[in-house]
Amino acid sequence: METQVIVPDEVKQALSVAGWSYEDEMEGLHPESNTLMIPRVVISHDDRGKHKMSIDFGSNYLQEGSEEIPVQGNTLTGIIFAHQKIRALWSKDEVQPTCSSIDGIPATSEPVNNKCSGCPEAVIGSGNCKVKQRLLLLVELDGKLPPVILSLPPTSLKHFERHLIKMKRSQLPLVIGRTCFSLIDIKRNGYRYAEIGISLDGLADKETLLQAKQARVDYEMLTSLISSEDYADAGDRI
Fold it and tell me: What is the model's pTM?
């Protein structure tokens, strides 16, 4: 069946002719959780070194597939308004992880261990429990500051740790920094992939800090759960 292209202007006109208010009807579209509405930063690795960074805004009825916007220069600047270390242990073809944790605290009813420290599945090199750093950002995009999620893979965690250390030594909280994320081409053991480098590119202004404070409140629910989309990268569930 061929997908019909929907034109928003035609929708508005049809509603208006029939006496409906487009704005009022749009206000009624509130899913139970707004977490799925947040775009995600996606990294496409290339064995020729032509890695790409983009923002996935998800699927809609206006086009086929997901809407992905390339990040110019593969460099993204944003304000970190929340961050968490997440872990998840996946079984084959599972939608939800067998065991997971947020900042070391189990997030499942029957965890493998009562804490991550000392858990055999969390041992480095075991290849079972996958650790990531989940960042919630307000990114600078087309003159606006939309929220996005960036889940740093294990290979990029060291860059975030170094950034944390530098910020602490400088007596700067993460939220005040305009944090810059860029791709680093890595060749190792016959593989070629991109790591995410992190640096500071100035400080946020008052207006941005106010938006970041509100964003932390608006997306507080997201920080209490782990989504399958956090582990959608290649190799995350192996």
Answer: 0.80
Q: Are 36 and 43 in contact (CB under 8 A)?
A: no
CA angle, residues 212, 213, 217, in degrees to nearest 5:
110
What whole-number distance in Å separates Cα of residue 135 and Cα of residue 82? 6
* Residues 52-63 pLDDT 10s: 999 988 776 776
Q: Where are the alpha helices (DSSP H) in 50-183?
A: 157-169
> Helix (H, G, I), strand (E, B), or coil: what is residue 18?
coil
Are residues 228 and 36 in contact, defined by beta-carbon separation less than 8 angstroms?
no
Cα 186 to Cα 50, 69, 199: the distances in Å are: 11, 24, 18
Residue type, 147: P
8 A C-beta contact, residue 138 and residue 236:
no
In angstroms, how far is the first alpha carbon of the chain from the final one?
35
| C-alpha closest to that of 136 among 43, 75, 212 | 212
Classified as helix, coil or strand, 112 is coil
